[in-house]
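Ops channel
N.P.: pipeline sanity check, posting one input/output pair.
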């Protein structure tokens, strides 16, 4: 029996009514495509049936499950963490990029490109245990306000995507996050925000080591530097490292997700690829082919011809945020 809730008016003898699994999605091609796919792969005996153990769904995080503008939340956290460290030890501000970050000069930070961002991340994330780091990240995401929306960072998850995650899990999919963001950063909030436990998070990994704390307790320390970048062509590699098989459902929002969606769709049997197109400047942000965050160019040009579903945020979502609007 399907796990979508059926409301049956037993006393009146009325027929069963299937609840809408995606109530915040506008009736249209995108919603219909998702439901048609899920019904096909879960229909026992059907031509497209996929056993539950193979119903693997992967989701990018930034710009797909929560917002990513004007810059990734992890970068904003890194700026705050860096300022706190620099207040205690100003000598860590050893470069122009770090000095710009400490002054809140995002233009100066972005002028350093990805290397500059990594420098800020290294300076702000290193020399702390994973547990301490995740506790600090959780506090930041649940108490600090986003610079443009005024919302708490943890409140900037997308309601339609939360519904999609629940719908897939109700239909015995296993849902994973596969993000270019730091794996320890996302694991600090993934279960609470999305119902995705930490062991179902794939992300970029920094160097780490085992050490004894001052009290003699064993801890895993964040040492700075990168050991694996889970972005672009790294995403299929990360999936195989952590999951061990090709997904049948992949969702992203930028060209950084192109390889993940393309690789997912290249497998045998039913497949679903989806990209979120940020078109809603009134309720969130509007951006695509140009910019420094979440560029969606190749995906827009090639995705439709490859059979991918392009979700137009303004048209396909009746609401954006989990707390309304």
């Amino acid at each position: 029996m399907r796990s979508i809730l059926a409301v049956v008016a037993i006393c009146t003898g009325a027929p069963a009514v299937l609840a809408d699994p995606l109530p915040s999605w506008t009736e249209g091609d995108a919603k219909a495509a998702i439901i048609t796919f899920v019904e096909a792969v879960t229909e026992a005996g059907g031509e497209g049936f996929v056993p539950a153990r193979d119903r693997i769904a992967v989701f990018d995080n930034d710009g797909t499950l929560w917002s990513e503008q004007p810059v990734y939340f992890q970068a904003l956290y890194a700026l705050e963490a860096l300022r706190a460290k620099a207040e205690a030890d100003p000598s860590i501000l050893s470069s122009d990029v770090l000095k710009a970050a400490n002054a809140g000069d995002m233009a100066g930070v972005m002028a350093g490109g990805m290397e500059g961002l990594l420098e800020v991340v290294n300076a702000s994330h290193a020399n702390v245990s994973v547990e301490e780091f995740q506790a600090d990240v959780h506090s930041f995401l649940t108490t600090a306000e986003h610079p443009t929306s005024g919302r708490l960072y943890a409140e900037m998850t997308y309601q339609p995507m939360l519904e999609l995650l629940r719908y897939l899990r109700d239909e015995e999919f296993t849902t994973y996050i596969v993000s270019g963001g730091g794996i320890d950063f996302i694991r600090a909030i993934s279960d609470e925000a999305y119902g995705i436990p930490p062991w179902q998070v794939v992300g970029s990994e920094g160097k780490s080591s085992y050490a004894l704390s001052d009290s003699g307790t064993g801890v895993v320390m964040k040492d700075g530097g990168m050991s694996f970048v889970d972005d672009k062509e790294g995403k299929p590699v990360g999936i195989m490292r952590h999951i061990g098989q090709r997904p049948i459902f992949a969702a992203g929002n930028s060209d950084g997700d192109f390889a993940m969606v393309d690789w997912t769709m290249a497998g045998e049997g039913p497949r679903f690829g989806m990209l979120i197109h940020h078109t809603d400047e009134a309720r969130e942000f509007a951006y695509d082919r140009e910019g420094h965050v979440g560029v969606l160019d190749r995906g827009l040009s090639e995705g439709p011809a490859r059979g991918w579903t392009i979700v137009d945020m303004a048209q396909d979502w009746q609401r954006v945020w989990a707390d309304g609007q």
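N.P.: looks fine end to end. The domain at 24-70+152-316 is CATH 3.40.50.1000 (Rossmann fold).
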